Amino acid sequence: MNPPPAPGAAAGILLAAGAGRRMGGPKALVVPAAGEGWLHRGVRVLLEAGCDPVVVVLGASADDAAELLRAGFADELAAGRVRIAVATAWEEGLGASLRTGIAAVRALTAVSGISAVAITLVDLPELEGEAVRRLLQGAGPTTLRQAFYEGRPGHPVVVGAEHLPALTEALAGDEGARPYLRAHGVEEVDCSDLGGGSDVDTPG
């Protein structure tokens, strides 16, 4: 059995379940000719920012993506610092994937005291760990923050543990957390100096 994270820890959720139709295949499997694979980079960024554990939500080609994780993070998986959650309803869209990730974190929170969770996407190959750290600074159970880049909302998003039940109820279809964030007065954190706010949907 994996050990629970330390009390008061911040968890991470990396959403990597989509089929990537415009990309030509699941984004979790994208490995550039030069550079780090997107799945590995997303996990590494969250770990280096202090998230423990990092819950990786898989869906399309879940077995292949899990194999990539085992190849790159065998020790972290064995220690429970990286955990895999498969969204069985991933085809419903982003909301279903996020529900799966939140459910995994809430199961841990019940025994571990996780106070907040940083949420991001696998298709952000330029996301900086410093952006995650900036949003996690001083985060607690009531925190609700979103990174903004040149005035545009982006990732990561940090959600305090007290918001997780209501956010879960609000998720539907392909809609993510944005309506909940707007309705509950999300704190906008400027990360324009860090870049990395744009997702990549198509090759090249």
In short:
This is Nucleotidyltransferase family protein. The chain is of the alpha/beta class and 204 residues long.
Structure description:
- Residues 12-184 form the MobA-like NTP transferase domain.
- This is Nucleotidyltransferase family protein.
- The chain has 204 residues and is α/β, with parallel strands linked by helices.
- The protein has one domain (10-194): Alpha-Beta Complex (Spore Coat Polysaccharide Biosynthesis Protein SpsA, Chain A).
- The chain contains 7 helices and 7 strands, in the order βαβααβαβαββααβ.
- The chain has helices at residues 38-48, 62-72, 74-79, 94-112, 129-136, 164-170, 178-183, and strands spanning 10-16, 54-58, 82-86, 116-121, 144-149, 152-160, 187-190.
- The protein has a 7-stranded mixed β-sheet, sandwiched between helices.
